[in-house]
Amino acid sequence: MNAPQPMSPLTSGPPPASASKPRPGWARRLTPLLETHISLPPFALLLIVALWVVTFHMIRTERAAAEQGAREGARKLAETYEAQMARSLSGIDQTLKMLKYAVERDGPAPALATLRQRGLLPPAMLFVAAVADRHGVLVARSPSPPPGPPVDISHEPHFTMHRAADTGMPYASRASGDSMRHEPHLHFTRRLNDAKGGFAGIAIIVTDPAYFTSAYERSREGDHGMLGLVGDDGVVRAMRIGDQVSWGQHLPMALLKDGQVRLDTVAGDGTPRYLCARRLHGFGMYAIVGLDAKEAMAAFARRERTWLAAAATGTALLAILVALLSAWSWQAARARRSVRHAQETYAAASEASVDAFFVFRSVFGADGSIVDLEIEMANGRAEKMTGRSLDQLRGTRICELMPHYRRNGVFAAMARVARDGGVEQAEWLAEVGTMAGRWLHLRVVQVEGGAFAMISDINERKLAADRIVHMAHHDDLTGLPNRTMLRLRLTEAIVEAERKQECVALVFVDLDGFKLINDGLGHSAGDELLKVIGQRMQACLRRGDTLARFGGDEFVLLLPATRPDPQALAPLLDKLRHAVQEPAQVAGQSVQVSCSAGVVMYPRDGRDADTLLMNADAAMYRAKDGGRNNYRFYTRDMNARGEENLVLLDGLRQSLDASMADDGGAHGFTLLYQPKIELASGRMFGVEALLRWEHPEHGQIAPARFIGLAEDSGMIVDIGDWALRTACRQAMAWRAAGLPPITVSVNVSPRQFEERRLVERVAAALADSGLPPDGLELEVTETLIMRDLAQSIAKMRTLQQMGVSLSIDDFGTGYSSLSSLKSFPISRLKIDQTFVRELADNPGDQAIATAVISLGHKLKLRVIAEGVETEAQCAFLRAHGCDEMQGYLFSKPVPPERIAALLLEEPCQPEAA
Ligand SMILES: Nc1nc2c(ncn2[C@@H]2O[C@H](COP(=O)(O)O[C@H]3[C@@H](O)[C@H](n4cnc5c(=O)[nH]c(N)nc54)O[C@@H]3COP(=O)(O)O)[C@@H](O)[C@H]2O)c(=O)[nH]1
C-alpha cells in the first residue's frame, strides 16, 4: 500500500455514542435455552415418550382387538363345536332311543340284530351298542363281544343311576375302562323299562372319547388349542389339546357358563387359553373350546414386536440423532462462546486500546467483485479519530468516508486483503483532521466477510525512531553529521561519482590549538568553540556538500562533483581557513584557533571510503607538521608517517633503555643549552636545556617530532628525568669549572609534571649533582597547570619551597585566568615566540607582548621573550621593559662547552646564527 492519503475525519460530530445496546435480562436468560444441545434432548425425550405412548396405545388397542378376536374366535369355535357335538350326541341319543324302543319291543338281541340289519346302528368302528338287563349283565352287544363270561356292569354309575331313577334323560358316563373294554371309553345310556314301567336294564352306546374331539383342526384350534366335552359335574369326558386326547379332569364349574369366554389355565398344562363352553342339552354336558392365548395372540404378538421394534428403532435413531445434533450444537455453542468471549475480550481490549479498529464488510457488485467496504464495527478510539459516533460510522462505506482511497490505491489494497487475505500495512503523516500532523500506521487483515483495519498513532514512536536515527547519524554537540553518516554519504558519493565519471573531494580538518582552549578554559568552552567553528565551516559550503564532525576537534568535508584539479579547491580551503581563524567569544573570552587540513580526491587518491579517509588524515598530519594553519593535498609518500612513528618510537625506546643503563651518551640523547640574556645588562644569567636525539639510523630527529611521541607513549617521564639530571650535573660542572653561576632551565612536559614522584626526582637530581636548588628552573606551560589547578599549585609550592624556581613557558597561548595566575608560585613568564615572530610589524603581537610584560611586572614576575631573532624584536622588547630574552639573535641552542665559552665572554654578545 503506497503512501496513503490521510484517513481523516470528514465531519466533526458530537461525542461518540455508546457502542452497544444491552439486551433485556429475560432475553439473555432465555438465550441459552435456545441452544440446540439444551433444548433438543428434552424435546427429543418428549418425542420418544409420545412415540412410546402411541406405540403402547396402539399395542393396547391391538391387544384388545386381538383379545377380542381371540374371544370371538373361541366363541365361534365353541358354537361350531357345540353344533357338531349336539349333532353327534343327538345321533347317539337317537340310536339309544331306537335301541330302547327296539329292545323294549323285541328284546335285546333281536333289537340289535334288526337295527344292525337296517343299518340304524352307528358304525361299529366307532361305536359299540350294547344292552344290559336289569341285573347289570350285558345281554346283547354289537358288534358281538369276544367269547367270555357275561359282563356285569351293575356297579357302573351309568347303570346304577338309571336303576335308581327313571329321569327319562340319557346319560353320559365318565370315561373309564370296564370288563367289556379296558381302554377308557364313554358310555351313553338310556333306561329300559318293562311294560309296567319298571327298570328293565339300559341301552348302551360306547364310544371312544377321541370321537368327540376329532373335529379338532390345527388350522382353527392351533397347535395347543383345546376341544372337549365336559359333564355337568365338571368332569371332562373327552378333551383334545393338540394331538393329545385326555379325559377325567375336573374343570371349575365357573368355566361352564354358557357362551362366556374366559382366559384361564385349566388344562393342567399351565397354558392360558381363551375358553368358551356351550351347554349341550340332552346329555347334561358342555362343549368346551379353548384357544391357546399365545397362538391366538400370535399375530398381535408379531405386530406388537414390530411396533416395539419400530418404536425402539425410532427411539434409538432419535437418540443418536439428538446426541449427534447436541454434540454438534454443543461444539458450535462452545465455539460461539469462545468467539463471543474473544469478541468480548476484543471489545474490552479494543475499547481500552489506543489504536482505532474498524471492521469492514465487503460490498459486492453484480460481477462478484468487491466494490466497497462498509463499516460494521469500530471502537471508541476510531470514533475519536474520525470524529464520528459509532452509529454514524456503522453502515458508512469507506469510499464515502474517504473518497480519495479509490484514487490512491488504499481501497484497492483493502479490497485485495478482504478478497485474498494477507496483510497490508502503511505509514503516513496525516495532513488534515483531528490527527493532522501526526504519523499514523494502518494495518489491514482479512476477516470473514471483509477486512479488519487497525490504525495506530505512531507519532511518538516514529519521532523517537527518527530521533534515534538522527542521533545515530549526527553529532550531539554540533548537530552535524557524524562519522557514520559521513561514511554513508561518502560511499553514496563514490557510487554516484563512479556512475557519472565525476570526482569527489574529501577534506580532513583538524583544529590547531583547540586542545589548549579545551584544557585551559574547560570542556564547555571547548564545546562552544566547536559549535561556532562548525557553523562557520558550514557557511562556507554549497548545498550538497557535507560537513561532518569526525570526533574531538576533527571535521571532515565531503564535496561531491568537484573538478578533478585539486587546486580548484584552494579558494574554498582558504575561505575555510580564514573562517576558522576568526576570533571567537567563548567562556567570556576571545579565543582563536586555526586549522590544518588534508585533501584527497576520488578516484585519484583512493577508490573507497576507508582509503580516502586514511589518506586525508595523513595529508592533514602533514599539514600540521608543516607549521599548521594550512592544508596539504595528499601525495603517496604521506602514508609513510605512521610507519615512521613506529620506527621512531622503537628508536626512542632503545635510546631510553641505553640511557638508563649507561649515562655515557652513547644512547643518542644530548642536551643543548640556549643562553638566556638579561636585556638591560646583556648578561647571560641562565640557559635553557633543550633535548636532542640522534636516531641510530635516521640521524638527528627534531624535538617537535619525537617529544610528542615520547609524551604520548609515556617515555617522556624517563627521558625528561634524564634531561633534568644531565642539566643539573652540567650546571654544577660549569660552577665547578669556576664559571659564573647561571640558572639552568629544564622543560617539564605535562606527563612529567603530573607524575607522582616529580618532586622526589627533582630533589634527587639536585642532590646527585650538588646543584643548589636556586640554580634550577623548571619551565611549565599554562595548559599543564590548568589541567588540575589545585594539584599543580600544590606541587609548584613544594618545588618553590625547595628553592627551585618556576617559569611559565609559552605564556599567552594558554588561557589561565588572571586570578589563578596570581596564585601561581612562579618567578618568570615567557612570552611565546609566536608573538615575538612578527613583533616588529604586527600590532596584535605587540599588544600581546606589552600586555604580558605589563602583567608580569604587576605580578612582580620577571618576563622573558623567546624566539628573538632580530634587533627590531629585541629593541621593541627592551623599549617595553621586557626583562630578558633568548633566541637566535644571541645564540642558538649550543653544546655545554660553548656555554662555558660564552660565560667567559662578558657581557654576552650575539652568536652567529
Ligand atoms: N619536555 C621537554 N621538552 C623539550 C625538551 N627539549 C626541547 N623541548 C621542547 O621541544 C620543543 C622544540 O624544541 P626545539 O626544537 O629545541 O626548539 C626550541 C628552540 O630551539 C627554539 N628557538 C629558540 N630560539 C629561537 C629562535 O630565535 N628562532 C626559532 N625559530 N626558534 C628558536 O625554540 C624552542 C624553545 O622552546 P621553548 O621550550 O618553548 O622555550 C619545544 O617546545 C621545547 O619546549 C626537553 O628536554 N623536555
Automatic annotation (TrEMBL):
SMART domains given in the database record: EAL, GGDEF
Keywords: Membrane, Transmembrane, Transmembrane helix
Domain EAL: 645-907
Pfam families attached to this UniProt entry: EAL, GGDEF
Family matches, as InterPro entries: Biofilm_reg_signaling, EAL_dom, EAL_sf, GGDEF_dom, Nucleotide_cyclase, PAS, PAS-like_dom_sf, Rev_trsase/Diguanyl_cyclase
GGDEF domain residues: 502-636
Annotated region described as Disordered, given as residue ranges: 1-24
Keyword Transmembrane: yes
Membrane-spanning intervals of the chain: 38-59, 307-330
Protein name (record): EAL domain-containing protein
Originating organism: Massilia terrae
